[in-house]
Amino acid sequence: MSAETKPQDAPAGALAQIPALAGIDRAMALVERAAMAVGALAILAMGLLVTGSVIGRAVFNHAIPDDILLAGLLVVPVVVLPLAYIQRADGHICVTVTTDWLPERARALLRLIGCALGIAFFGAMGWFLFQKVPAEFAQGLYYDGQLDVPYWPMKAVFAAGILLFVLRLALSIAAELFILLGRDARPAASQSE
Amino acid sequence: MDPVTIGLFALAAVLILLILRTPIAVALGVVATVGIFLIFAWRPYMPFNPDAAWRPTFSLLANSPYAFITSYTLSTVPLFIFMGHLAYQAGFTTDIYHAARVWLTRVPGGVAMASVVGCGGFSAITGSSVACAAAMGRIAIPEMLRFGYDKALASGSVAIGGTLGSLIPPSILFILFGIFAEESIAELFIAAVIPGLLSLLGYVVVIFIWAKLKPAHAPTPEEDLTRAVRLDALKRCWAILVLFAVVIGGIYLGVFTPTEAAGVGAIACLALGLVLRRLNGAGIVAALKESAFQTSMIFAIAIGGKLFVNFMALTGIPAYLIDVISASDVEMWMVMGLIVLLYIGLGMFLDPIGIILLTLPLTLPIVETYGLSFIWFGVIVVKLLEIGLVTPPIGLNVFVIKSIVEKQVSLEAIFKGVSLFLAADAIVLGLLLGFPALSLWLPSLMG
Description:
Chain A is mostly helical. Chain A has helices spanning 19-59, 67-80, 83-88, 104-130, 133-139, 152-180. In chain A, helix 1 (19-59) packs antiparallel against helix 6, helix 2 packs parallel to helix 6 and helix 5 (133-139) runs antiparallel to helix 6 (152-180). Chain B starts with a helix and ends with a helix.
């Protein structure tokens, strides 16, 4: 089983052997690191929000308005924004012991299928959620509460995180295809399962 | 087509996809989505009608995962993970190990005991077994090997000690169990205190017996530790004790909800680290990045799991299983025995979070049929999942330790070391199964 739990910087020069995709990979890596940073900062914001609310309730008898709603919404960037970064670091958990004995090309094919299924599942999820955003924006829909927090921003963040993840999965498929064709284009970390 | 048949095919499909290296999140999500589509498109005694299925399937796909991850309760997970990483970066975890080491140094197997106690201490502020094993492995194993400890004992004690990470609260597995079983996370946390301490005691006893029977495996370190050194080591543990008291005390006394306790604990850890000058910018950034990485990885699986739970409810398999069990008049202990075997079997191959999400839709209704407590069952499930973390051929904690010790200790030696501790785990599991009060007494005292 592979379970990368350390957020090492995703390996540089991924897909470097595919000149046409190397530039895209580098640009993607920058965006992924930025998205990861936003996701990480959202955890800090969540902690400060919850603590501030507890202190406010204890000292001033008033919690931060809509604290429960905001803490829940902050989970969205924490969850979806790092997904692409994790994919680049080969960090999504899968059972590998059952197929470790297969030749590299066969394993590349299985990884390719996994990525394709990932695109279908997460892509569909992001797409159908995103379709709600324009209407919710136009109608000005918001959550019931003191701050009238609108629906659409976190749904847009969710869709953006999923889009980034789907693009990374597509690049992973390109890398696996190169292995299938006999040319190893995977980053070093991906080969060490 | 009969929904139960669709559900059974789906279960087989998930297992096949997992065997074929599909990421757990994707396997659960894809099968659930296709299964939901088929249930709506292929109703019993009706022709296949895909037009009837698109809308409900896409609606569920768009709404269920988003509603799930924006739940306030789930924000507990990243906050507890963050607290654990901050404590590691600040060196609070090392303090616990160091204190146990200097106080237990003259006891047979004292350094190994200290590593297990250190794991217990780290478990009290982190919710992940793998994180616990990784953190303590880096600190304790090199020291044990330096003192001439047997490799199997040195590596096995940390691998097994790491399993306390999910059993001693706070615990990510208990949070997920609580959400899916709709049980109080606070009660689950409190219920796990005695089982966690019992497991810790069991491991210490195994080390003591091992060191007594084979003194050469656990030589006593030749060092002269003064009383002042020991007291100083003990004093340095105050920060971690304060954090534990804030989190668990706050939950137990009803001052905080578990989510609030996680937020306050994380920020308290951050403040303590900064005030004591044990945390710098790099440490905070590393803790934040590691927390975001782990949270996202876990929630990706939980999203697939959530859809799978929705799908299982639609198939009617849980109700079908209950009918079968009721009709066959099976004794409760036999059913529990089968559930134990199921979790141990799956634990040999699958990740604990994947198992919990895959099995709860099936096992919870069965447990409910027999009128058993979900709190007690949650403790049993997490204990079984922890055993799965050290059993071959997968044993995630063992691989974590292997990645730390590299060529110094073989995989076989680590598994050999762990195997002796499994005897203690079997006894503790038997006690937890036989005496539910061990899990239910503390929650019964909560207001």
